[in-house]
Amino acid sequence: MIRLCIYGGSGYTGQELARLLLNHPGAKVVSITSRRFAGVSLADVYPALAGQTELVYTNDPPEALAKNCDLVFLALPHGASMEIAPIFLKAGKKVIDLSADFRIRDVSVYEAWYRTHAAAALIPEAVYGLPELYRKEIRGTRLLANPGCYPTSVILGLAPALRSRLLDPASVIADSKSGVSGSGREPQIGSLFCEVAGGFKADKVGGHRHTPEIEQELSCLAGRPLTISFTPHLLPLKRGILSTIYAKLEKEISTEEVAALYRGFYEKEPFVRICRAGQFPNISSVAGSNFCDIGVTVDKRTNRLIVVSVIDNLIKGASGQAIQNMNIMQGLPEASGLPRTGLYP
Amino acid sequence: MIRLCIYGGSGYTGQELARLLLNHPGAKVVSITSRRFAGVSLADVYPALAGQTELVYTNDPPEALAKNCDLVFLALPHGASMEIAPIFLKAGKKVIDLSADFRIRDVSVYEAWYRTHAAAALIPEAVYGLPELYRKEIRGTRLLANPGCYPTSVILGLAPALRSRLLDPASVIADSKSGVSGSGREPQIGSLFCEVAGGFKADKVGGHRHTPEIEQELSCLAGRPLTISFTPHLLPLKRGILSTIYAKLEKEISTEEVAALYRGFYEKEPFVRICRAGQFPNISSVAGSNFCDIGVTVDKRTNRLIVVSVIDNLIKGASGQAIQNMNIMQGLPEASGLPRTGLYP
Amino acid sequence: MIRLCIYGGSGYTGQELARLLLNHPGAKVVSITSRRFAGVSLADVYPALAGQTELVYTNDPPEALAKNCDLVFLALPHGASMEIAPIFLKAGKKVIDLSADFRIRDVSVYEAWYRTHAAAALIPEAVYGLPELYRKEIRGTRLLANPGCYPTSVILGLAPALRSRLLDPASVIADSKSGVSGSGREPQIGSLFCEVAGGFKADKVGGHRHTPEIEQELSCLAGRPLTISFTPHLLPLKRGILSTIYAKLEKEISTEEVAALYRGFYEKEPFVRICRAGQFPNISSVAGSNFCDIGVTVDKRTNRLIVVSVIDNLIKGASGQAIQNMNIMQGLPEASGLPRTGLYP
Amino acid sequence: MIRLCIYGGSGYTGQELARLLLNHPGAKVVSITSRRFAGVSLADVYPALAGQTELVYTNDPPEALAKNCDLVFLALPHGASMEIAPIFLKAGKKVIDLSADFRIRDVSVYEAWYRTHAAAALIPEAVYGLPELYRKEIRGTRLLANPGCYPTSVILGLAPALRSRLLDPASVIADSKSGVSGSGREPQIGSLFCEVAGGFKADKVGGHRHTPEIEQELSCLAGRPLTISFTPHLLPLKRGILSTIYAKLEKEISTEEVAALYRGFYEKEPFVRICRAGQFPNISSVAGSNFCDIGVTVDKRTNRLIVVSVIDNLIKGASGQAIQNMNIMQGLPEASGLPRTGLYP
Questions:
Q1: Which residue does chain A place closest to B53, by CA atoms?
Q2: Which of B19, C102, D89, D165 has the most CB atoms in a 10 Å sphere around its CB?
Q3: Mind telling me how many Å the CA of B265 is from chain D's nearest CA?
Q4: What angle (nearest 5°) sits at the alpha carbon of residue C148, between those of residues C323 and C262?
């Protein structure tokens, strides 16, 4: 039984890790931290878990926590992970970081979009944790950079087409829409029910921090540098991201052929499903599960490929993918503990 | 492996049975019926299940279906079950009926609130499937009447207090609020998003058909006939029922004592949780799970007991409870296949 | 043109006052205060008002503001109004207070439920601003205590029946459900979209501060002291309160007769509508308007009267009612500037 | 007082016309039709209007209705208007058609996307009712084709940039998101609360019928033929459309310059508001009002213009715009009866 620490356990991704890991047959959370809730039981903060866990939030220092675990999930804000990760690594533990701190390979790009990096020396060994692209590298790493939620939906949505050189790399536009849990559990006016319900807006136009992460991976797939327009929006729902992706086709191809190409690319993937040609996915089909569902069409009138991909931002977009990565890193069955039947209606 | 038939599988309770049973280690759905979707695969109607089941809706006659299953769930409208149940029973199969047809012991009461009964002879052997009250009887029956969603929340909310003779039986008021999935998947104006979102109303004041079912069971618990005011309301959310229940206390007792009484009563129950004295449950803590959460308080100013109970109407209020009953009837572990960690946020 | 000051203008009730008064033909907001947004234009905080107002939030002291207005609305937390009201009164201005500070006639009751009162000497002259009951007194007052949102829905729902001595005063139960805007615009975890959407809970069981206000007015109507059970709940919607009210009947009466009694009682009221016998109101029918809609039924089985009343908590339950009161105090047409056609769907 | 007929008054656009016109000082609805609700009062179908209108739905033939009105609004499905419009025109009445039947100037394009046209001879005299572009033509017409909701948001969002030849016409992508009221009030599974809430999906990818209408007007503005990618999506909210529009810039220009250009273009428009450079609009700022709010940015990294425009689909996207057109056609003040202060929160 693998012993886990959740470092930063009071936000939605930390809680989601705890919730999902309750059903994991091969791993067990032994500690969960929170400054605000230190001394309070997890079930008190999160009554849905009443009767199912004895965990109590702790504020113990990372050095102490590292002694009693095999692997730590860092569910911290950007900038905080880079301070904590080295402590666990030094203690010989594996680290899965859910922040952006180790996702960007070029530290100058990271620093342009985020802040000065305090542990840049670790970046070269960090593995970008998208199992569909980096399964082999994930297996051997001790420092895993878990992908962002938006990037997961966009990269999975474009990977087969870019690898096959179908697309004009200068033409990619990703119009993404996310549920509110992506904004975290910190109280702020913009996340209040009265501000969100009945509303819809673009979150950040032309400059969201997930842009360099997406471009890094898409460039890799395309085999040449690629710049995208990426616009995230805020949906009045709790969980889920839907990305609608547009790109010019450089080859003539039919919708059926693209669907077949995607189906082939993801054939052995346990958590990617391709819709039938002409069908498109709904967030409600993946909410509560670790699936990414993808639909494709070729718009003959404009010669564009249009891809729609959906994930649950807290599961495949964060905590579920982190567990999938843990399973791979630890040699467990990859789907262990991961939900396949979401909640609908 | 127990072979199951879901008879009436296109509504929300039928779908929920199918969804939950995918995760059941000891039972397997072998057939699922729908007139409208005959020939269509379950995953096409319900894309959340894509890749997880090969089931195709059938319109085969019940006689044929009975040959290949051990137990049937009837997820049919009231009045339809009484026609189908005898066919499966005659074939030697067990029946779990999710309609009201076999819940009311006094056929004249049933006929006053519903319609003429076509299989009244079967009523005496039907067992009311609330495991917390009738576990022993459930074990031996071949015809189980699965409780209504509102009744489940009200009866579990009052059982300990009524059994202990704490309450004036003439004083019980149950003010219940249900999510929209309780209205089913049939298209009707009142269930449209634009009619429901941002709205809230009483569903039926002073005459809802669940009243006699609730009164039958509460009278039983109280040991004397009991008439209640029961008002259901329609919440702008998908899943969940919350019942706020009021009754005059006939004995002096503190909130802590009532909480202790409830905790004792449900001590060994796998799916009932009692909140700490002074705490009250939220629908979001049980949505997606088979739990019933209950909070109690004694209002000293008015000498009333106030109970708040919550369930997921599709799980503990319907399909989950049906599976719990199946587990008991078949000698399986009672919690098999039943979700404990719901979905929050 | 009456010159108005909105003191405390950044919360939902302050904003709603500003929004509604834009359409008022006989009054004009000349100043609006906010500590947090001082110097920021109202339209920047509240983009729905862009292009419609030049107002800029100010943090000027009340003494200065009093010089340039005829009447002030205090949209402040309980406890703050009692400090500010005397300043405006001393300057010879009229005060409409939307907090609870001047609603409770018995200062010891106020202090038991709230806090020490700093301006108790003003209480005797304050008028409780429910036009349907106190129109004459409102006309002449300089200090108006605008009713609470829950109390408005409960008192209007019971007034005709209590005045007619139909009810057992010991038997009244009010089960109320409110939208989230009632919790204000202060960021707090419990008001976040992810906490509210898909959830429903009792807000405070057996001890909400609106209880003494409701009891004061109901006792008045009944002509004898009356204690109630009042349970507020939190609905996953933005605007609206629905109260379901139960009481034992002391006289024999039919649903039709009660409906006629209510219709007669409110015959000349511009903002109360009585549903046809057997019909019940929906929050969506009053959201965005100043109406209170009421439905009644006599439950013969239990000999109870059941009343359902709905209001928009921000309009008839707060800012709209405050404007209605201003109109009366200033001799303007009572319905001036008040919305009748809400927003549906 | 202009006498109006609403032909097709039971859907959301027909109801919205009735609701808005209650507040119109210069026009009055004298008849409203519905096959389903003939003989039922409008207020019974739509309780929010109780006490405010005596209108009763009628099923009278159009010839009879034409005798008593000056102007008719046709709120009918596509294909039905073309049958009814000629009857009113022949009787000498003006017609405002909210369907697509007279929007497309090239009948062969209409017939390719919709169906055979039964009144093609009328098309040349029909005026496309976007006041911001065709105010002069609207003034003199007797047959007005009221724009579609999606087209209104996209065309207003692009008009200034296209007129100024800023954009590569082959590069336009409109990613639109609409509330559910756009799907109408006909009961269908896809519009049920349980299907919509918590979900989000593309509605039709690469082939929505609003495409030719958008292309017709954008081509006009650009002065050359233009083909777009247009993807509508279904938001879990009742009212509102947000369109995110992308196009390659052909000239170098800054965000501030584009904002100034837009501000100049719409300077005298009563119902278009331009956000400050770098700010973007929220559906909740226009819901309940006739405004179109627009935000713009220049994405230097990709050399694209990104425009975000929002409207209330039932008001500026349908019934409000129809009334704005009626005001122009009848020489009334253009903003008469049109709401400016929507409902927020």
A1: A341
A2: C102
A3: 35
A4: 85
Q: Inter-chain contact C286–D48, Cβ cutoff 8 Å?
A: yes
Top-level class of domain D2-125: alpha beta
**If chain B, 345 residues long, is cut into consecutive pieces of 10 residues, what is the mean pLDDT of each piece?**
96 97 97 97 95 96 97 96 98 98 97 96 98 98 98 98 97 98 94 97 90 97 96 98 98 96 98 94 98 97 97 98 98 97 93
What phi and psi, each to the nearest 5 degrees, are found at residue A247? -155, 145
Of C181, C188, C196, the CB nearest to A187: C188
The pTM for the full model equals 0.97
Chain C closest-CA separation from residue D274 CA (Å): 10
Angle between helices B320-329 and B12-21 (to 10 degrees): 50
| pLDDT tens digits for range D65-90 | 999 999 999 999 999 999 999 999 99
CB contact under 8 A, C12 and A185: no
Smallest CA–CA distance from B235 into chain D, residue: D193
Please give the single-letter amino acid code of residue A140.
Answer: G
Q: Which residues of B are catalytic?
A: 149
Instruction: Give chain C positions within 8 Å (CB) of D345.
Output: 12, 181, 238-239
Q: Is the bond leading into A225 cis (omega within 30 degrees of zero)?
A: no
Which subunits sit against B, judged by 3+ Cβ pairs under 8 A?
Answer: A, C, D
Q: How far apart are CA B206 and CA B231, in angstroms?
A: 6
**Residue A51 near chain B (CB below 8 Å):** yes
Which positions in chain A touch D242 (Cβ < 8 Å)? Answer: 200-202, 233
- Let me know: does B236 contact B197? Beta carbons within 8 Å: yes
Token digits of residue A344: 């609908």
What was the pLDDT predicted at A204?
A: 86
Residues of A in contact with D228 (CB under 8 A): 302
The residues with which C144 forms a beta bridge, in sequence order, are C96, C127
* Residues of A identified as active-site: 149
Angular region, D206: left φ>0, alpha ψ -120 to 50, beta rest: left
B13: closest CA among B94, B97, B127? B97
In angstroms, what CA-CA distances link D265 with D133, D249, D270, D312? 10, 18, 12, 21
Percentage of residues in chain A having pLDDT higher than 70: 100
CB C167 within 8 A of CB C252: no
Per-residue model confidence as pLDDT tens digits over C228-249: 999 999 999 999 999 999 999 9
pLDDT 10s digits, A105-164: 999 999 999 999 999 999 999 999 999 999 999 999 999 999 999 999 999 999 999 999
| Facing D12 at nearest CB: one of B12, B181, B194 | B194
Contact by Cβ (8 Å): C202, B308: yes
Given an 8 Å threshold on Cβ–Cβ distance, is C284 in contact with B227? no
Q: Is C236 on the interface with B (CB under 8 A)?
A: yes
pLDDT at B215: 97
Give the Å distances, CA to CA, from B22 to B27, B29, B324, C141, C226: 9, 8, 15, 68, 55
What gap in Å lies between CA A228 and CA D302, rounded to an integer? Answer: 7
Q: CA–CA separation, A302 vs A246, rounded Å?
A: 11
- CA C199, CA A12: separation in Å to the nearest integer? 16
pLDDT of residue A277: 84
- CATH tag, A150-313: 3.30.360.10
Would you state the CATH architecture of domain C150-312? 2-Layer Sandwich (3.30)
Residue listed under structure tokens 């837009």: D262
Cα nearest neighbour of C310 on chain D:
D48
**What pLDDT does A207 receive?**
81
Give the number of other CB atoms < 10 A from CB of residue A184. 15
Cβ atoms of D342 and C48 within 8 Å: the answer is: yes
Q: Where are the domains of chain B?
A: 2-125, 150-313
